[in-house]
């Protein structure tokens, strides 16, 4: 009887909304799974999505899992590392009713140094307290240098570090998809023009000095 009623409900939901997409919706702020209610997506949202966001601060790990209706620009597999903070976001995006009942595939972590060096900072104390000299070596697919501030309830955190191309393309938003968090002041750090960013600078300076004084 119960499943019969459920079927009627789903059926009438389908009839009432024409061919709108139906997705599962739920949020778990402290874990990697959730189950929730069905929601009918608005016309502008043509995908069902399931997003697993993992943050690492020193050795402290936090997982946030969310299922919802979404758009193509909510689909990311990306990561960034800023000082001792790291965030990875993996999204499952699909187009059929309730298809987001699964989990996104987690990309394996690639820790191989990739040769890029970026300005590095994670400063939640206050904005503009980053050490301009601080740099980090990038790993795996995090080949771009980016920097931005995030604002949550008026509280500003400044991030500088290595990011994947998708993270850079999202202008930092992929790392902070939450509606309550605003990403501002995004820019790609331009390492080739910053002294401390150049891997080969010591050699270049040595060469210049040699040229100047020989
Ligand atoms: C994310 O990775 C999964 C598994 O490799 C892949 O199926 C999916 O298309 C990727 N999504 C994006 C937006 O790159
Ligand atoms: C890991 O990252 C390095 C540096 O970007 C790259 O050369 C290598 O192919 C990656 N390995 C895998 C398994 O993706
Ligand atoms: C960051 O953005 C805020 C607000 O838009 C602005 O007042 C501030 O000057 C910006 N800071 C930098 C370093 O660009
Ligand atoms: C990066 O370099 C380009 C060209 O050298 C320059 O026009 C641009 O202003 C630089 N951007 C930053 C953020 O330093």
UniProtKB/TrEMBL annotation:
<protein>
    <submittedName>
        <fullName>Phospholipase A2 inhibitor and Ly6/PLAUR domain-containing protein-like</fullName>
    </submittedName>
</protein>
<dbReference type="InterPro" id="IPR016054">
    <property type="entry name" value="LY6_UPA_recep-like"/>
</dbReference>
<feature type="signal peptide">
    <location>
        <begin position="1"/>
        <end position="20"/>
    </location>
</feature>
<dbReference type="GO" id="GO:0019834">
    <property type="term" value="F:phospholipase A2 inhibitor activity"/>
</dbReference>
<keyword id="KW-0964">Secreted</keyword>
<keyword id="KW-0593">Phospholipase A2 inhibitor</keyword>
<dbReference type="InterPro" id="IPR045860">
    <property type="entry name" value="Snake_toxin-like_sf"/>
</dbReference>
<dbReference type="Pfam" id="PF00021">
    <property type="entry name" value="UPAR_LY6"/>
</dbReference>
<dbReference type="GO" id="GO:0005576">
    <property type="term" value="C:extracellular region"/>
</dbReference>
<feature type="domain" description="UPAR/Ly6">
    <location>
        <begin position="115"/>
        <end position="191"/>
    </location>
</feature>
<keyword id="KW-0732">Signal</keyword>
<dbReference type="InterPro" id="IPR050918">
    <property type="entry name" value="CNF-like_PLA2_Inhibitor"/>
</dbReference>
<feature type="domain" description="UPAR/Ly6">
    <location>
        <begin position="20"/>
        <end position="101"/>
    </location>
</feature>
């Amino acid at each position: 009887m119960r499943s019969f009623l459920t079927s009627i409900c789903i059926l009438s939901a389908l009839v009432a909304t024409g061919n709108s997409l139906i997705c599962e919706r739920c949020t778990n702020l402290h874990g990697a799974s959730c189950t929730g209610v069905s929601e009918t997506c608005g016309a502008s949202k043509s995908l069902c999505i399931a997003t697993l966001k993992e943050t690492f601060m020193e050795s402290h790990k936090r997982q946030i899992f969310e299922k919802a209706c979404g758009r193509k620009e909510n689909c990311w597999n990306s990561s960034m590392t800023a000082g001792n903070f790291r965030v990875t976001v993996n999204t499952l995006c699909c187009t059929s009713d309730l298809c987001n009942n699964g989990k996104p595939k987690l990309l394996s972590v690639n820790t191989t140094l990739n040769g890029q060096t970026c300005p590095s900072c994670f400063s939640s104390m206050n904005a503009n307290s980053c050490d301009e000299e601080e740099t980090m070596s990038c790993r795996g697919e995090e080949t771009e240098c980016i920097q931005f501030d995030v604002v949550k309830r008026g509280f500003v955190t400044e991030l500088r570090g290595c990011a994947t191309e998708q993270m850079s393309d999202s202008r930092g938003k992929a790392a902070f998809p939450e509606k309550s968090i605003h990403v501002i002041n995004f820019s790609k750090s331009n390492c080739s023009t910053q002294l401390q960013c150049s891997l080969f600078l010591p050699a270049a300076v040595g060469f210049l000095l040699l040229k100047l004084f020989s």
